[in-house]
Amino acid sequence: MAAPVMDTCHVSCCANRTPNVVSWGRGGLIAFGTCNSVALYNPQVTLLIVLVFVHLLLQFTACAVCSGHSGPVCAVDGLSLSSSQLLVASASSDSTVKLWTCSSDAGTIGSVIITSLAVPVLACGGDDSRVHLYVQLNGQFQRLLTLSGHEDWVRCVEWATKGKNKLWLASCSQDCLIRVWRLFAKAATEPVQQTDAVLKMKENVFEVSGDEFAVTLETVLAGHENWVYGIHWQPPCVKGDSVEQPLKLLSASVDKTMILWGPEEDSGMWVELVRVGEVGGNTLGFYGCQMSPDGFMILAHAFHGALHLWHCDSNQGEWRPSVVISGHFNAVQDLSWDPEGDFIITVGSDQTTRLFTPWTRNGRSEITWHEISRPQIHGYDMQCLTMVGRFQFVSGADEKVLRVFKAPRNFVESFANISCTPLEKLLGSDLPEGASTPALGLSNKAVFQGMNPLNSLATGEFPPTEDDLLQNTLWPEVQKLYGHGFEMFCLASDSERTVVASACKASKSEHAAILLWSTTSWKQLQSLPCHSLTVTQMAFSPNGRLLLAVSRDRTWSLWRRGNPDTDTEASFSLYANTSKDTAVHTRIIWSCDWSSDSKYFVTSSRDKKVIIWGHCGSGDSVGECEGESVTPCSSVLDVGDSATAVSICPYLCSDQSYLLAVGLENGKIVLYKWRPSEDLSSGSDWSRCGETDACQSHTLTVKRLRWRPRPGRAGHGGNEERAWVQLASAGADHVVKIFNIKISAL
């Protein structure tokens, strides 16, 4: 089979913000839900290497779809009954638990709203503060016992085995407590010597098929200060010829801590063995926890979707934080490469701006991508950004203000170590050490030397942990730009990084004007009115002479810059545009881009059409032919779905054709080659040369596509790198992806 045209080199994502969404398998893989997908990755590369995303979804196929619940399914568990039969239990907010074998509905249990469950004996915890036990009798599960004690919703229950006749059941609740119950067969227990001094726990006795069983409360664990959302027993391990399950219980709470509990060897009293967690930050604690099969790594997933990993140092016995995969927890709206193509910055509806870069560890050849900075943690959903220098960017959110950020010294020093660049070439004068956000504030304030201790980022030894990303990697805000009347929607900057164009949401023409800003004085230069509805995207031509804008009103406008020799400030005037009468697109135009030679630009629309424009047949850059109109230079390409993103590769294919990437509403990314042709009737000017497969595609709308501005793969070196290009994509499915494409083979 031929190698795929597009090779995925990086996927950034995080866990959904809900309990019961992470599972650590016995084979070592961690699975977690991210938006409406399941992500798999392997944490066993090395303890100080970021967890590499594992593309195994192509090896997994759906063998059954269990439909029957009338409400959201909030928990599932499974048990292998035999080599060919699987029992699955599912709990839903429709107040039912359903048991499934193969693909048929084996039964329904009416109850309260179920929040957690576990098998082999079915235990259900609900909003009635009780734990209900069900046992299968005559092919049906029947409730035999109800365990009381919790004083609020039961959030999680889980079984453990000890010996042949004992089961341990742990339950946690919003009452901040954990209860451990012991279930055993009465016949297997030794009789207790009756004396006046013996205190005996109450036993809840029940009978199944003539055998007598009892459940007793073993212990109540009090150590958390807020709701306990998740618990997890240490998985069974092989010792000699037998399989044993250690009696160690992990718990996770909204108080931002995880605790590992276990009984003392001498007294048998349950005590706190280890406590780990967050310090500071603006998060709201943990939703759940998992433990590695060998018991030397523990994982928590937090309210903001972040994964937190700790490993046990086998030499010193200390638990230390490890680097873990990270990403946005809501739709990723925009992204941009830095001018040198060494890192990407992304913004999302999760109100964060994140920076990802490749990292090469000492003594190793593999290159992996990591989030090394979170420059902006905002109070509004982020919408757009543009780079205005190597270490400076402008961002816009669901507010009327644009904000300008500049990298602090601690980031530049860290980046110098990563990229093996002399620090002197990167450092500017009078850079602050870092930034911090005041309480109840939205602006990142600069922190200078002596005001805040530096973290370990500048050593370049390993990427920052989630705690560091939250607290120690902010960039100072250096400017605010006021002028728009509604929420920001799109941004663009010219190739010289001297002018920034901005546009906001608009339902009337007076609000749809484009504003131009100087990056030296940060003053408003000009207002460009033309469109009647929101300008959805803008792009400056690579030669800096033209500004292209596309809009919800189904038209595009082209603005030409005045003579820089005579104009002290940038002055743009309308050069060409389409109107409702001359428009080719019949629906909203979502995206646009320029060819690297400034001869052509492309537009993509909800009408499924992609069109290339320019001065047809002239061979000149757009705007250089006086008297020549701007017309379609390509046949109309129907991509089969709403074309929500488009980008032209800055480098030509080996046959001198242009390479375009088109992002679709269904999440697929398609590659096309286009060559100018005099005959546009046949559509032969377009050729489809690649696309993402089911594993590589986004699962929701592609929001943005950006080619790396330099040839080669970021972080790699050598002459052979000129055969490669990289494409970054952002999706509404919360995911950022980077693809390697061998352009010489297209």
Automatic annotation (TrEMBL):
The keyword Electron transport does not apply. InterPro entries: Elp2 (IPR037289), WD40/YVTN_repeat-like_dom_sf (IPR015943), WD40_repeat_dom_sf (IPR036322), WD40_rpt (IPR001680). This is Elongator complex protein 2. Pfam families: WD40. Pathway: tRNA modification; 5-methoxycarbonylmethyl-2-thiouridine-tRNA biosynthesis. SUPFAM superfamilies: WD40 repeat-like. It comes from Cyprinus carpio (Common carp). One of its GO terms (cellular component) is cytoplasm. WD repeats lie at residues 69-100, 147-183, 325-356, 528-559, 582-613.
